[in-house]
Design a protein that fits this description.
The complex is a heterodimer. Chain A contains four helices and four strands. Chain A is of the alpha+beta class. In chain A, 27% of the residues are buried. Chain B is mainly α. Chain B is rod-shaped. The interface between A and B is medium-sized, with 39 and 30 residues.
Chain lengths: 138, 94
């Protein structure tokens, strides 16, 4: 190792300041957590427009909107499957079982005007009445 | 009957016909013909397959076939609380 010069030292200081600023920013995002984890506007719009429907198997179905909506749905379904997989691992259940319960809950969370699919495969629009779900749902 | 002179190449006008240059030339011309036929066949074949494209129009209303999910009620009871937390932690995708 050579001599540590004045310029090296100041560069180190600047770099470490930079790193700590980035770290602070990232940890702020992590702490803020739930507030930042809202639906993104495109997804929120797709739900209210009825372009997507909640399926009993725990995933979204793309209805209208063409390729953009399909891509949005595919993206969300991939993320949901990842979440279900983690949960299945920690609960010693199958992904399908976790996803089914996810579907029960997700359909229950739909608001009036949003679409969901019944156990018999019909696409329905929510009203104020409770949604039609699989009898095994809680 | 042709007489081949060893004294150099004969003038152009007297160059013997193909039979005299041996079987090699005849074979190469046959190959050239076959090659042409093969290329032509490929072009025609590819034109036919390309023109035979089928376009499929997806129906407007999706046909939803529900897969029979094999899950017992007791499993739903066991998983329900965890899944509610899962949704709470992942509100952006639910």
């Amino acid at each position: 190792m050579g001599r540590l010069m004045q310029s090296d030292f100041s560069r180190l200081v600047r770099r470490s300041i930079g790193i700590s600023v980035v770290a602070a920013g990232l940890s702020l995002a992590a702490i803020a957590g739930p507030a930042w984890a809202a639906r993104d506007p495109a997804y929120a719009a797709a739900r209210s427009d009825g372009d997507v429907a909640e399926k009993p198997d725990g995933y979204l179905l793309a209805i209208g909107g063409g390729g953009t909506i399909q891509k949005l749905v595919d993206d969300i379904n991939i993320k949901r499957r990842a979440a279900y997989t983690d949960e299945a691992r920690s609960q010693s259940a199958t992904i399908e079982q976790v996803a089914f319960v996810g579907g029960c809950r997700a359909i229950l969370r739909t608001v009036a005007g949003e679409k969901y699919v019944t156990p018999s495969g019909n696409v329905m629009t929510r009203t104020s009445a409770p949604p039609e779900r699989d009898p095994r749902c809680l | 009957m042709n007489m081949l002179r060893l004294t150099g190449k004969p003038p152009a006008a007297t160059i013997a016909p193909m039979e005299n240059t041996g079987q090699a030339a005849e074979q190469s011309s046959r190959h050239a013909y076959r090659h042409f036929v093969r290329v032509a066949a490929m072009l025609v074949g590819s034109a036919l397959t390309l023109s035979g494209c089928i376009s499929v129009n997806a129906p407007d209303e999706p046909i939803v076939i529900e897969l029979n999910i094999n899950i017992k009620q007791e499993v739903v009871y066991r998983l329900d609380a965890g899944v509610q937390d899962l949704i709470k932690d992942n509100e952006d995708i639910f």
